[in-house]
Design goal:
By secondary structure, the protein is mostly beta strands. The protein has four helices and 36 strands. The strands form seven sheets. It has a 22-stranded antiparallel barrel. Strands 2-1-6 form a three-stranded antiparallel β-sheet, with no helix packed on it. It is globular, with a radius of gyration of 29 Å. The protein starts with a helix and ends with a strand.
């Protein structure tokens, strides 16, 4: 059945008409002397040595008049491809204009779900679009005000996620994901369009939607991400403008988990979508909208890397960044819960309607100074200094409580590169006035290149002093409330990494020392924040290695974590990800890869989940058996389209009938999914 469906899809896609656009253009475009359909190519003797004539072909007689007519009526044509599109992000425009080719490969194309990132897996409540937390120890490296709501972060689009395009032709990307058989558990669609109004001015827009019907009742989620952006550079390359407007809406159902806690161990005739749940109709509704404008201006002398380069290398640069962010968080539930998931009612007795609002206004001023060698061959010997002042103003509202405050921060970054052999980067952030005065984040990283074949070493360290998030100290909602004071959480980190791209190898060792760790815990069925009085030590080792054997590729990634407080952090000691697949071309045009992804995590004490506040907490000490989880997939590229077909949890029933990552929340069962992405360049 899968084979028939795949062939039917290819036939349907192949029916799409040829998309070569015929236009009148000069015979040379862009830089250089590239010519398209030069009429001189009609001269059959042009490329013969010493003017030697080709032998006459039989039954071919072309008169001079007919040849002249062909030349007069012929039109030049350009077939636009991905080579006409370049992309970048804001982080690559801070020093100069760094552009990258458009990625049209199928690498990781079938790994669309943000909850199952091979190197950053999650514990989650059972479907894309629902609440999650990182499975591995990944502390946030932020300072200042923090509401504490991060259980939907991977579904949000933020200014740093915007991709800017340099498009010599109009560019459109369409993407669709759907379930092929059974319940329409997860669906996704997005369309991107970008074009240059002028050679130095680009605009674009993206509309994306993800809808999850869920695998069990009450797991419906509907996420919308829309964004508009523009990128402008002055002709002399001194002024750069980046502006974007982002609109996020997340609606995620909460079923409080299913009532059947032995669904994988005791046979049942009830279909998963009809299993009884603890909540009926509970919903999180987020609105997360942002307007962001960033401007750069180069002052003093500026140089170009080469005579035909479009990237200016400034000696001094000033920048200004304005951001306005409006956040609205709502939790709704009709009726009264009798299962104990929502066991307290402080405001309303018959329903729940919690709301939290945050308005954030940010102004950032920065100055950058660059010291480079005079000769182009020494451009990699570079000293760069950035200094900045940041003002953050917040307006926070919850029920009948409102607070307005601001933070003033100093930022500084020092980069030094010694040729291409060594580099040092020091980054400092310090809040010196405001509500979160005393917060800081100090980071340092040094990179040493051994050789092209021996790879490079990366040494890193950071020290963080972070104020408690709002949700830990003051919270007032229908089911949870507290007014507490905690000390700042402090994190010290040391890291050592070795990377060798030539041999597809990477290894990293990290040590964390965490003081005053904040977490949620349940005592006497009351969920409240806690602070650990002892220091937490955690060692994290990770290694990745890819092997290639002819047409076969074997990717491997392994993480080992060891801590003295596993009952507090609740993270597995071992996590591995493996992917083995084969490369094969069919009909000379279908570049195809097919194989298996296998992930595994060792036993750990599973966290519980509080739906009303979206927090994972330390409840009853439950440990679940764990087994490898395998997904079968095939991905291919045909002309401008990438396609994949995958079957998740293909080994269901081999070791077990299902598994958990969060207490009482079963993970998805086996299901087939199909995705396609099609690019248009005209």
């Amino acid at each position: 059945m899968l084979k028939k469906l795949f062939l039917l899809l290819l036939l349907a896609v192949g029916y799409y008409p040829l998309m070569a656009q015929v236009i009148r253009t000069p015979r040379t475009i862009g830089t250089g002397n590239t010519r398209f359909n030069d009429p001189s190519s009609l001269n059959p003797n042009q490329n013969q040595p010493n003017g030697q004539q080709q032998p006459a072909q039989p039954k071919q007689e072309i008169s001079v008049d007919s040849l002249r007519k062909q030349l007069e009526t012929k039109k030049d044509s350009i077939i636009y491809t991905a080579k006409f599109i370049k992309v970048t992000k804001e982080e690559f425009l801070r020093d100069s204009t760094r552009l990258f080719p458009l990625d049209t490969s199928t690498t990781n194309f079938h790994r669309f779900n943000p909850l199952y990132d091979p190197k950053s897996p999650t514990m989650n409540t059972g479907a894309m679009g629902l609440a999650y937390r990182p499975m591995l120890f990944e502390p946030l490296k932020t300072i200042g005000f923090d509401l504490g709501y991060h259980f939907f972060d991977r579904y949000l689009t933020k200014p740093e996620d915007i991709i800017y395009y340099q498009a010599r032709s109009q560019f459109t990307e369409m993407y669709m994901l759907s379930t092929t058989f059974g319940v329409n558990a997860e669906q996704a669609f997005h369309v991107i369009h970008s074009q240059n109004i002028k050679p130095n001015w680009n605009v674009g827009a993206k509309y994306a939607t993800n809808r999850t019907e869920g695998y069990y009742f009450g797991q419906t989620a509907n996420n919308l991400n829309a964004s508009l952006w523009t990128w402008y550079e002055s002709k002399n390359k001194r002024y750069t403008l980046l502006a974007n407007a982002i609109f996020n809406t997340i609606k995620s159902g909460e079923n409080g988990s299913i009532r059947n806690d032995s669904i994988f161990t005791v046979p049942t005739v009830v279909q998963p979508e009809f299993e009884a749940t603890r909540l009926d109709g509970a919903l999180h509704n987020w609105r997360y909208n942002t307007i962001n404008i960033k401007q750069f201006y180069n002052i003093g002398k500026q140089r170009f890397a080469s005579a035909d380069s479009t990237s200016a290398l400034p000696t001094q640069r000033v920048s200004y960044n304005f951001t306005y962010n409006r956040q609205k968080y709502f939790f709704r539930n009709e009726g009264v819960d009798t299962t104990g998931v929502l066991n307290n009612y402080y405001i309303f007795r018959d329903s729940t309607s919690d709301s939290t609002l945050v308005n954030h206004l940010k102004n950032e001023f920065a100055y950058s100074f660059y010291l480079r060698g005079k000769k182009l061959s020494f451009l990699k010997n570079e000293l760069k200094l950035d200094v900045g002042l940041v003002q953050d103003f917040y307006d926070y509202k919850q029920v009948n409580y409102q607070s307005q405050f601001q933070n003033l921060s100093l930022k500084g970054t020092l980069n030094y590169s010694f040729s291409d052999k060594a580099s040092l980067k020091v980054d400092l952030q310090q809040i010196f006035q405001g509500r979160n005065i005393g917060d800081f984040l100090y980071q340092a990283q040094s990179e040493i290149k051994l050789s092209n074949s021996a790879g490079r070493l990366v040494l890193g360290a950071y020290s963080q002093n972070q104020s408690p998030a709002i949700i830990y100290e003051r919270w007032f909602s229908n089911h949870h409330r507290w007014n507490l004071n905690f000390d700042n959480q402090k994190t010290q980190n040391l890291s050592f990494a070795y990377l060798n791209p030539k041999y597809h190898f990477q290894a990293k060792a990290e040590y964390f020392l965490v003081s005053n760790h904040l977490y949620f815990s349940s005592e006497n069925n009351i969920i409240e924040p806690k602070q650990l009085g002892s220091n937490i030590n955690l060692l994290k080792l990770s290694v990745g290695k890819d092997f290639k054997f002819g047409k076969f590729t074997f990717e491997n990634y392994l993480v080992y974590q060891k801590t003295d407080f596993e009952q507090i952090l609740r993270t597995p000691e071992v996590y591995t990800f493996h992917s083995i697949y084969m490369h094969q071309n069919f009909f000379k045009v279908l570049k195809t890869e097919f194989g298996f992804d296998v992930r595994y995590f060792s036993q750990y004490t599973a966290p519980s989940y509080a739906p009303a506040i979206g927090q994972f907490y330390n409840g009853e000490a439950v440990r679940f058996n764990t087994w490898p989880i395998a997904d079968a997939w095939i991905r291919t590229n045909w002309k401008r389209a990438n396609l994949f077909l995958r079957y998740n949890y293909v080994n269901k029933g081999l070791f077990s009938n299902g598994y958990y990552t969060v207490n009482r929340y079963p993970m998805p069962y086996s299901i087939a999914q199909f995705g396609v992405k099609w690019n248009f360049y005209d």
